[in-house]
TrEMBL record:
Species annotation: Notoacmeibacter marinus
Pfam family, one: Ribonuc_L-PSP
InterPro entries: RutC-like_sf, YjgF/YER057c/UK114
Name the record gives this protein: Enamine deaminase RidA
Length: 101
């Protein structure tokens, strides 16, 4: 099993956080993909995902990005609205569990 802790939407190439929640979700998923690859598994091995959003009105934008990545995989998923994340500019945080093989 590989666990990727809560990942936010920073663009690590520019060290910036986009304002758009969809862009934040896309960045988080790209970071997760790299972490999984580094651990010797693939995004296709994800069996569980948890999405934390600071505003449930952003859920559709988050689902648009997660659906793009997970539509064929269909991991068990939960979305949770939280009052805030670590920094005020953070709108979404994603964590996943993958099963090797």
């Amino acid at each position: 099993m590989v666990f990727v802790a809560g990942t936010t939407g920073y663009d690590y190439e520019t060290m910036t956080m986009p304002d758009d929640v969809g862009a934040q979700a896309a960045n988080a998923l790209a970071t997760i993909d790299k972490a999984l690859t580094d651990a010797g598994v693939a995004i296709a091995d994800v069996v569980r995902a948890t999405y934390y959003v600071t505003d449930m009105n952003d859920a559709d934008a988050v689902f648009a990005e997660t659906g793009r990545v997970f539509s064929a995989i269909r991991p068990a998923a939960t979305i949770v609205e939280v009052t805030k994340l670590l920094k005020p500019e953070m709108k979404v945080e994603i964590e996943v569990t993958a099963k090797r093989g």
